[in-house]
Specification:
The chain is α+β, with helices and mostly antiparallel strands. Strands 2-3-1-4-5-11-6 form a seven-stranded mixed beta sheet, sandwiched between helices. Strands 20-19-22-15-14-23 form a six-stranded antiparallel beta sheet. β31 and β32 form a beta hairpin. α7 packs across α8 and α13 crosses α14. It is globular and about 100 Å long. The N and C termini lie far apart (about 65 Å).
C-alpha cells in the first residue's frame, strides 16, 4: 500500500468508545447507531435483553453491560466519503471499571453519554477522569430528553462544574424539553451552527428528519446559546478569533469555519462539543454520528504512540504508519471453549495471519494463527490488519492484557495498563474432588481474562480465595464458572480484602536459617531495618534497599533475599492479609562457604521480616468507598442517620433537580446488603453508586478481632 493510500485509509477510521454512568443509555445509543448505519435491520431493546452488544446471558438477564463489546459500522462524512467507525460499548457499573480503563487506553475518541434527568453522576466522573488520563478527545451527548424532569441547561452546567478540565461547547439545544416535560413537549433539536430546527418522527423510527426555521418562541434562547458557542471558540482558538472578528465587520461566518474550529479544540482536548437527544425515541442519533466523524480523531490525528526500548530503556515512538514496524497492544482477552481470543490495537505496521511476532515484556515469540474483525459475539476472519485497526487474534499463548506485540527486529515496549486493586474476596471450593483440577484451570483462565480478578490458596488452610471489585463482580464470576465452565462449586460469603502495614520503624532485626546436621545444610543470616513508606500507585508494595558493605553477602544471593521478603509480605501480617507500604533496608548478614544457598536466604529473609513486623506492630487497613446516594428529600434524614451508623463520613449534601445527593466516604465492611437497606429506607425511590477510593486505618478493635479468628 503506497503512502497516499495508507494516509487515506487511516483518515477514514474512527476508533471510539461509548462511556457513561450506568443507565445513561449507552447500549441503546449503540443499538440506534448500528441501525442507522445499516449494520442491523431491527433494533433490540435493553429491557427485552436482545441488543447486539449485550450478548452475554448475564447481561441480557440483568439489563446491564458487563463486558466491553466491540463492533464496526460505516457512515459518510459531509463529502460522501465512507468512514469506518469502530465502537466499543463499555459497562457503566463501577465493578467493571477495568473494562472502561482498558478500552480507553487504546481508543482515539469517546462519546460520553449523560442522562438529562440524573445529570453528572458518580461513575460519569470516573469515566471522565479515565478518558482524561489517556488524553482521549470527547464529545458529550445529553440523552433521555423525553423524560419527565429532563433539564438540558442544568446538565450542561454540571458538566462544566463537576468534571475535571471540562469545557463544554453547545452544538445543539432541545426544543420543548424541561423539568415538567414529557415526550409530548420534547419536539426536536436546534442546530446552533446552521441555526435550523430539526424535527424527528417516531413513527418511522427517526429515519426522516425535517429541517425548518427555528420557532419564534425559542429563537431568543437559541441566539443566546449560539453566542455562547461562538464566544467559547474565540476564547480557545486563535484562527477562529480572526474569522469571527472579520465577521463582526461584515464578512460571512460560514458553518465550515465553526466546524473546523470545533474540531481543532476537540482534538486538542481543550473543549468538548455537546449534542443532545433521546436515543430511545430515535432523536439526535444521526447527528451524533455526524459529530463523531466531524470532531473525533482518526488515528492520523493522534500523536505518535510512545514506548521504551525493552533492553536499552531509551524512549521510542511509533507513527500510525501501515508501512512502519509493527507495534500493537493486547488490551483484552476473552476465553471460550475454542481457546483465548486476544483483542489487539495496532498502532503501527501490519499484522498478517500465521505470522510470528515478539512480546518484549515476556521475551517470547508468539504466533498469530488467525485474525478476526469482531462484531460483538460474532467474528469475521481476515488475512491482514494494519495500523489503526482493532482486531481479535487467536494463537497467543503467553501474552496477557497490557502486553506489547512488535517485530523482533525493531523492538518497542508500550506503556502497560494500570488497574485498581481488588477490594472484596470470598472462598470457593469444588463440590467434588474431580472438579479440583478443573477449578484451578478455570481460575487461571479467568485471571487471564480479567485483570481485576485474583485468586490465592491459603497454604495453612488449603482454602482458595477469589478476589474482585465488588459483590456483583464476584457473583458474575461465580455464575460464569457454573454456567460456562460447567463447574460445581461452593462459595463463601463475600468479605472485605484488608491490607496491613506497620505502626513504627524498627532497626537491626536479624533473620536466620541455620540447619547444619552433617552433609549439605542451610545457612543464612541477614539484618534488616524496616520502616513505613507509602508506595506510589502501581509500584510494588515493598521497597527493597541494599546497604551492605564489604561484600558480606555475595551479590548472587540478593535476588533470593528480595524474593523472600516479597513472598512474606504477601501474607505476613498478624491477620494473614498482605503487607503494604514497607521499606526494607538490608544492612548486614553472614554466609557459610558450603551451606549458604538461595533457599537459605529466602527463608532467612522471610524470618527477618516476620520478626520485624511483630516488633513494629501492625495497623489494619480497610478499603474506603466513595459513596453517592440520590434520594427524594423526605428520606434524607433517615438515610443520613443510617450512613452514620455505618461509620460513614458525609462530605457534602447537594441538590440535583428535585432530588438530594449525599456524597460520603464509608468503609466497605459496613456496606454489605446496602442495596436492600436503602430501598427499605426510601420505599424503593433512592439509588446509590459506590467505587473504591483508598485504603485507610481501621479501628484497632477490628485488627484484634481478625487476628483472633
Amino acid at each position: 500500500m503506497d503512502s497516499d493510500a495508507s494516509h487515506s485509509a487511516l483518515a477514514s477510521i474512527r476508533n471510539i468508545g461509548i462511556i457513561a454512568h450506568i443507565d445513561a443509555g449507552k447500549t441503546t445509543t449503540t443499538e440506534r447507531i448500528l441501525f442507522y448505519t445499516g449494520e442491523i435491520h431491527r433494533m433490540g431493546d435493553v429491557d427485552k435483553g436482545n441488543t447486539t452488544t449485550d450478548y452475554l446471558e448475564e447481561e441480557r438477564e440483568r439489563g446491564i453491560t458487563i463486558v466491553a463489546a466491540a463492533i464496526s459500522c460505516h457512515w459518510k462524512d459531509a463529502a460522501g466519503k465512507p468512514i469506518t467507525i469502530n465502537i466499543i460499548d463499555t459497562p457503566g457499573h463501577v465493578d467493571f471499571t477495568a473494562e472502561v480503563e482498558r478500552s480507553l487506553r487504546v481508543l482515539d475518541g469517546a462519546v460520553v453519554v449523560f442522562s438529562a434527568v440524573e445529570g453528572v453522576e458518580a461513575q460519569s466522573e470516573t469515566v471522565w477522569r479515565q478518558a482524561a488520563k489517556y488524553r482521549v478527545p470527547r464529545i458529550c451527548f445529553i440523552n433521555k430528553l423525553d423524560r419527565i424532569g429532563a433539564e438540558f441547561e442544568r446538565v450542561f452546567q454540571e458538566i462544566t462544574d463537576r468534571l475535571v478540565d471540562s469545557r463544554p461547547i453547545p452544538v445543539q439545544i432541545p426544543i420543548g424539553a424541561g423539568p415538567e416535560g414529557s415526550m409530548g413537549e420534547f419536539k426536536g433539536l436546534i442546530d446552533l451552527i446552521a441555526m435550523r430546527a430539526l424535527f424527528y418522527k417516531t413513527e418511522d423510527l427517526g429515519s426522516s428528519i425535517t429541517e425548518a426555521e427555528i420557532p419564534e418562541t425559542v429563537l431568543p434562547e437559541a441566539e443566546l446559546w449560539r453566542e455562547r458557542l461562538l464566544n467559547t471558540l474565540t476564547d480557545l482558538d486563535e484562527t477562529f478569533t480572526d474569522i469571527y472578528m472579520a465577521h463582526l465587520e461584515g464578512a460571512e461566518l460560514p458553518a465550515t469555519a465553526i466546524e473546523a474550529a470545533l474540531r481543532r479544540v476537540t482534538l486538542s482536548g481543550h473543549a468538548q462539543p455537546v449534542l443532545c437527544g433521546s436515543s430511545l425515541r430515535y432523536v439526535g442519533v444521526q447527528r451524533l454520528l455526524d459529530a463523531v466523524v466531524l470532531y473525533l480523531p482518526s488515528p492520523l490525528d493522534k500523536p505518535p504512540v510512545l514506548g521504551t526500548h525493552p533492553k536499552k530503556g531509551t524512549e521510542l515512538s511509533r507513527k500510525p504508519d501501515p508501512n512502519g514496524p509493527l507495534a500493537g497492544l493486547v488490551f483484552k482477552i476473552t476465553s471460550d471453549a475454542h481457546g483465548d481470543l486476544s483483542f489487539v490495537r495496532i498502532y503501527s505496521g501490519r499484522l498478517k495471519a500465521g505470522t510470528r511476532v515478539y512480546n518484549p515484556g515476556k521475551d517470547r515469540k508468539e504466533i498469530c494463527s488467525r485474525l478476526y474483525h469482531i462484531r460483538a459475539d460474532d467474528r469475521e476472519q481476515i488475512n491482514e490488519a494494519i495500523a489503526g485497526d482493532i482486531v481479535g487474534v487467536v494463537g497467543l499463548k503467553d501474552s496477557v492484557t497490557g502486553d506489547t506485540l512488535c517485530d523482533a527486529s525493531d523492538l518497542i515496549l508500550l506503556e502497560r495498563i494500570e488497574f485498581p486493586e481488588t477490594v472484596m474476596s470470598m472462598s470457593i471450593e469444588p463440590v467434588s474432588s474431580a472438579d479440583k483440577g478443573k477449578l484451578a484451570d478455570t481460575l487461571v483462565a479467568l485471571a487471564r481474562e480479567d485483570p481485576t480478578f485474583a485468586f490465592r490458596v491459603n497454604e495453612e488452610t488449603g482454602q482458595t480465595l477469589i478476589s474482585g471489585m465488588g459483590e456483583l463482580h464476584l457473583e458474575i464470576l461465580k455464575n460464569k464458572m457454573i454456567r460456562d465452565y460447567r463447574l460445581k462449586v461452593h462459595v463463601g460469603r463475600p468479605r472485605v480484602s484488608y491490607r496491613e502495614t506497620i505502626k513504627r520503624a524498627v532497626k537491626r532485626v536479624e533473620g536466620s536459617c541455620i540447619r547444619q546436621t552433617g552433609g549439605s545444610g542451610l545457612y543464612a543470616r541477614i539484618t534488616i531495618d524496616l520502616e513505613h513508606e507509602t508506595q506510589p500507585k502501581g509500584a510494588p508494595v515493598l521497597h527493597f534497599v541494599n546497604k551492605l558493605k564489604g561484600g558480606v553477602i555475595p551479590p548472587e544471593f540478593l535476588p533470593a533475599i528480595e524474593a523472600g521478603l516479597r513472598e512474606e509480605a504477601k501474607s505476613g501480617g498478624r491477620t494473614g492479609y498482605p503487607l503494604v507500604d514497607l521499606k526494607v533496608t538490608l544492612t548486614d548478614g553472614s554466609t557459610h562457604d558450603v551451606d549458604s544457598n538461595d533457599l537459605a536466604f529466602r527463608f532467612a529473609a522471610s524470618d527477618a521480616l516476620r520478626k520485624a513486623v511483630q516488633e513494629a506492630g501492625s495497623v489494619l487497613l480497610e478499603p474506603i468507598m466513595k459513596l453517592e446516594v440520590v434520594t427524594p428529600e423526605e428520606y434524607l434524614g433517615g438515610i443520613a442517620a443510617d450512613l452514620s451508623s455505618r461509620r460513614a463520613l458525609i462530605d457534602q449534601t447537594s441538590t440535583r433537580g428535585n432530588l438530594m445527593v449525599i456524597e460520603a466516604r464509608v468503609p466497605l465492611e459496613k456496606m454489605f446488603g446496602y442495596s436492600t437497606a436503602v430501598r427499605s429506607l426510601s420505599q424503593g425511590r433512592a439509588g446509590y453508586t459506590m467505587e473504591p477510593l483508598e485504603y485507610a486505618a481501621a479501628p484497632d478493635s477490628m485488627l484484634e478481632a481478625l487476628a483472633g479468628m
